[in-house]
Request: fold
Amino acid sequence: MSVSARLEEHALRPEQELAELIEQATGNGAVVSFAGIARSGSKGGQVVYRLVLEHHPALTLQSLEDIAVEAAARFDVSHVRVVHRFGDIAAGEPIVFAGAAALHRRAAFDAADYLMDRLKTEAIFWKREIGEAGSSWIEPTEADYADRERWG
Amino acid sequence: MKVLFYGRLAETIGPELEIDAPAGCSVAELRDRLIAEHPQAEQPLRARRALACVGDALVRDSYVLKSADSVEFLPPVSGG
Reply:
């Protein structure tokens, strides 16, 4: 079992994270990964230039670790990897990578899905969109909270 | 007592305040006092999913504060 969670202040490269996860997961039959990308448009259709993700000096990494450990305990997976950006993130850049490896695909899909539902609603960040409409705080939607509730 | 704020709360109130809270004050009482002094922060302070922490651990509204505590108020969080 290998669980990894980390914060990245600078570039996050999902393809590199996936390659390392596949290499670590030798002998498994399935690797599932998700990359979240900063959108270039707001819900209202206005141009977004960048996101600013504020974080907490201790609780943010702790929240990522807790979510990764709980995914590893809940599903029949051998590896879980979570990497999350903080700071200034230009539109089009990756914000988050969540991946899981398992003997069979279902556990890996479920673990990746679970990781993202929890990260969206419980990872300790405060997110602001900066764009043509100025600056606005972004919080999870009711749909995000409902997705999280699916896992109990 | 030091009180720290994050996200939209830091934008509204500032990142840090020094408050002279009475002995035995609970998190809920401190929040009421902050709202009285900073009414513009009422919505994020009372948000259903807002959190309070002492010593990097989440605490309930009934938690009784000590004068040496640093209290942190976290508005609703969002990753991903």
The longest strand of chain B covers residues 70-74.
